[in-house]
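Worked example 2:
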Amino acid sequence: MSEHFVVPEELGGSRADAGLAKLMDISRSAAALLIAEGNVTGSAGTVGKSAKLVAGSVLEVTVPERRDPLEVVEEVVEGLNILLDDDDFVVIDKPVGVAAHPSPGWVGPTVVGGLAGAGYRISTSGAPERAGIVHRLDVGTSGVMIVAKSEHAYTVLKRAFKERTVDKVYHAVVQGLPDPLEGTIDAPIGRHPGHDWRFAVIEDGRPSVTHYEVLEAYGKATLVEIHLETGRTHQIRVHFSALRHPCAGDLTYGADPRLAANLGLTRQWLHARRLGFSHPRTGEWVEVTSEYPADLRYALELLESGNA
């Protein structure tokens, strides 16, 4: 869709992004995006965002159709395997690079979209783009994840995660050797004061508790099993980084890029290994385990062979 605008006298001499924002009654950042995409032209051709507008000139603006960031895109997601299918819930193996649900700023595949693409119809309350989601895994974390299929399961499982009656077990390869070999990290986590997209141990953060035990030490790195008592965003990554034992491959939280390259890692070595929970209808205890994906298995084999 194209629109034409005549630049009025009062906007003559103003920067293109600021002037266009007023002409179209949109935010300056939205105007800047239209210009950056080459969607704004004048008599001299494509307009740059810092160009000065000329009173009386005509601007042609092509407004592209933009997908709703919360739209659920039904698609077959490679590697999204079903570990357990029940009338009330489905337990999946979430591959790396897949978000739990659509959100602004994320344009990749999602668990919600992948399940829809596989023919699952989730019927729960809450926002449609989060249908059935009772907990989440980071985009860069693989492993076992449960999605409610019925309203009853959604209510019961949400409560179970909130009341911490779910057994969440992760495996991670962390740099160096944690001391002691078994312990608890009890340190509050909040947004990093200098980086919105990172988290950190901060005094007024939310209570966060991580239990761990060493499974195997390889010298440069160690395989640990982790039981999460709380479920803060990036909790394991932040806690082990604070101990100066970041997850191998986790460059965001201080991992050694040379070791990451040697192990072939393009993400943190972190995997949701096992999930234990009470069946939402019968109360019977259910445990589901996820095997390591190829990239994590490859890195582990290099460490075991001493070739890292």
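The helical segments are 16-24, 28-36, 111-117, 151-162, 235-242, 257-262, 294-305. The CA atoms of residues 84 and 91 lie 5 Å apart.
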